[in-house]
Automatic annotation (TrEMBL):
Listed CDD domains: HATPase_RsbW-like (cd16936)
Keyword hit for Transferase: yes
Entry keyword annotation includes Kinase: yes
Source organism: Allocatelliglobosispora scoriae
Listed InterPro entries: Anti-sigma-factor_SerPK, HATPase_C_sf, HATPase_dom
Keywords in alphabetical order: Kinase, Serine/threonine-protein kinase, Transferase
Chain ranges passing through the membrane: none
Pfam families given in the database record: HATPase_c_2
Designated name of the protein: Anti-sigma regulatory factor (Ser/Thr protein kinase)
Length: 134
């Protein structure tokens, strides 16, 4: 299992920083696929934490069972709300997460929470450090 984490500020720039962090880690770990969906998911989770949460915001990544497990923690215990009818001011986030990820959830820790999701990954055999030769 590979893992990494980073703290992000409560800032409009944090979504872009999350995308950059995820892209750099996946490149570093040898993933060759297009992972635009994962970048959207990471930016959405972080943007929600920035908009509705409380500092600090922490983004954690881990590879497990062919998925990238993403967690975004913040200091608010308030659960995210899935809007049935998103509008001009937003509400599309959890709908995106549901469509792009295999599963997602919320875990409460102390005074805060983390929202997590699993996104499918594939890695080319030549890039996998522990892959068996063909």
């Amino acid at each position: 299992m590979l893992s990494a984490s980073t703290k992000l500020p409560i800032s409009p720039a944090s979504g872009a920083a999350a995308r950059r962090f995820v892209m750099e880690r996946l490149d570093e770990w040898g993933y060759q696929q297009s992972y635009d969906d994962i970048l959207i998911v990471a930016a959405e989770l972080v943007s929600n934490a920035v908009r509705h949460g409380v500092a600090p915001v922490l983004l954690r990544l881990a590879t497990q069972d062919g998925c990238l497990h993403l967690e975004v923690a913040d200091g608010s215990s308030e659960e995210p709300v899935r809007h049935e009818r998103p509008g001009v001011d937003g509400g599309f986030g959890l709908m995106l997460i549901e469509r792009l990820c295999t599963r997602w959830g919320v875990e409460h820790v102390g005074n805060g929470k983390y929202v997590w999701c699993d996104c499918p990954l594939s890695r080319s055999a030549e890039a996998a450090p522990d892959a068996e030769p063909a």
